[in-house]
Design goal:
The chain is built from 16 helices and eleven strands. By secondary structure, it is of the alpha+beta class.
Length: about 450
């Protein structure tokens, strides 16, 4: 699908500007007067099944990643490597977006607006302030919204398809409950770096040996002081490559079973020998370790009021309503009565908004975080989640030994999270292999 060689003077200016923006990206840097520049930069950089990846998308994502790495003080890899990783991520996103569309997964504007407003509030901004912050960073608010829409659709798609591949038996739950990993969960948390070297299915012995030699060489370089994050960006085929391979903080039981034992044996900054599994070789580093508590849980007796936009109430009117409810509470109004009158949570409204005794992990992230921060007998400021606007009140707190049922539920959640990540990586590899992809860089 080559583009016409003739372009207007206006387009020539646009292309020249774009080229200047990506100077130093060797894959795109060719003389401005070359027709190849017009074909490659002006339009399509990859064909993915029935979709395309545009040069503008690649450039925008490149700019975002550069800003993020600079903010986090991560060393920048060579441009051609960074471009390759970003291109692969855009290709995978395109494949998943098309699959979501085929399966009728849509994120409506109302749901999207609630998510964006929640995102803004998570950054302690109003929606207008958040829009201004995006503009100051050179980010289009409309493009940001569409990126969030795509992320939400992909998340739903993954949840729907990958969960079907997961089954957890009673024997597996019992085995985890009796394992040293479960006990370790309550003592320490681990932050792990991960580099994944993929192997083709039924790869020959020679290919496997070559990949293992490369893995050993990477380990050697890392132990000699090479930057792990930069190496992960350059070498890893994991979905966390652009984050420098950082898997974040996890308790022992939440570590992927593929390398959980090795992590527990490592000292901080230690790097394990390469771990070969079916279809991949893994390189791991223990970045940090910290204490995580004891086998007790803090439960909170909480109640809330939920209001949502509707066909007859705009998002702005809904935000005004929750602020008015908070004002009435500050003036001494009865929380239970206001919940019965206004709350749109059918499970709790008739009970005065009462959610009973709960732990933070039982709720969406922001609700749980705000519940933890709110003082006993205190009322939170209004906040937004994907469900709508909330205001909550903490009635009481207690510390309880974890019940057998709670332990079993936690074990199921841990096993599911482990299995989900393992299946997710395999599923992404499968859909990538099955897709028609033509890279035009």
């Amino acid at each position: 699908m080559d583009l016409p060689l003739e372009v207007s003077a206006k387009m020539h200016k646009v292309l020249t500007t774009l080229l200047v923006c990506v100077v130093g990206i060797s894959l795109l840097y060719v003389p401005v007067n070359s027709h190849a520049v017009y074909r490659e930069i002006e339009g399509i950089v990859a064909i993915v099944d029935d979709d395309v990846v545009l040069a503008s998308e690649l450039k925008n994502r490149y700019d975002q990643v550069i800003r993020q790495m600079q903010t986090q003080n991560v060393s920048l890899p060579p441009n051609e490597i960074l471009i390759s990783q970003i291109m692969e991520r855009l290709i995978l996103e395109s494949i998943q977006k098309q699959e979501a569309e085929r399966r009728g997964i849509r994120i409506d504007d109302e749901t999207l607006t609630r998510a964006v407003m929640s995102f803004a509030q998570g950054n302690n901004m109003t929606l207008e302030q958040f829009q201004q912050a995006l503009a100051a960073d050179g980010v289009s608010y409309r493009e940001f919204r569409e990126e969030i829409r795509t992320e939400m659709a992909i998340t739903r798609l993954q949840r729907n398809l990958i969960n079907r591949r997961i089954s957890i038996t009673d024997q597996e739950v019992e085995g985890l409950l009796n394992s040293p990993f479960y006990k370790e969960m309550f003592s320490d948390e681990y932050r792990v770096g991960h580099i994944l070297l993929s192997l083709e299915e039924r790869a020959s012995d020679e290919v496997v040996e070559a990949a293992m030699a490369e893995a050993n060489n990477i380990v050697k370089q890392l132990r000699e002081g090479a930057d792990f994050a930069q190496t992960a960006i350059a070498k890893s085929s994991s979905s966390r490559a652009l984050e420098g391979g950082d898997l974040g903080w996890r308790k022992a039981g939440e570590l992927p079973s593929l390398f959980a034992e090795q992590v527990l044996e490592l000292e901080v900054d230690g790097i394990a020998e390469p771990i070969k599994t079916s279809g991949a070789i893994h390189i791991i580093k223990l970045l940090e370790r910290r204490g995580a508590g004891v086998q007790k849980v803090v439960e909170t007796n909480v109640r809330h009021i939920l209001v949502q936009p509707s066909e007859i109430r705009s998002p702005e009117e809904t935000a005004a309503l929750i602020q008015d409810i908070k004002r009435q509470l500050d003036e001494g109004a009865d929380f239970a009565e206001l919940a019965k009158e206004h709350s749109q949570d059918p499970a709790s409204a008739l009970n005065g908004g009462d959610l009973g005794w709960a732990t933070p992990d039982q709720f969406v992230g922001q609700f749980g975080e705000i519940m933890e921060r709110t003082a006993k007998e205190g009322v939170s400021e209004p906040f937004l989640t994907q469900f709508g606007w909330h205001v909550l009140q903490v009635l009481d707190r207690r510390e309880e030994d974890m019940s057998d049922e709670a332990r079993e539920n936690m074990a199921v959640e841990i096993l599911h999270k482990r299995r989900f990540e393992e299946e997710q990586q395999e599923w992404l590899k499968e859909i990538r292999d099955e897709a028609f992809v033509e890279v035009r860089l």
